[in-house]
Amino acid sequence: MARDKPLPRNRRKPINRGLERSRNNDKVKNISIGLMDIDSTIMFYFNNVIKPQVMENSSLIKVPIMYANPERWNQVQKNGFLYDNKQQLVIPLIAFKRTSIEKDVSMSADKFNPHNYSIAFRKNIVM
User: Which of 56, 59, 63, 123 could form a Cys-Cys staple with 52, CB 3.0–4.6 A?
Assistant: First the structure.
């Protein structure tokens, strides 16, 4: 007959929990999000969600999107347009740049704190 109650502490085997949590042979990489990830997410959103297009001569033209490094951004601000590598004018164009980086002081630096991670979900309500 199976025992319903847990074993008393004096009859349990000692467990070293430090060995159970080791990541020495773990194949999963640590999660990290950098500035390049954020910029590529914005680029992905423009290309795959917004999909900007312009109608010209009864045909749809896809608008190119690029990250504007400081040199490009300066050229766009000064001239009002951008030249590509072949010195040809790029019109229409969507250029974006990162203006500032700011640390969120409301989050603690403890990476193992479960309150640092949030899961967003949306329930589909059918009426």
Answer: 63
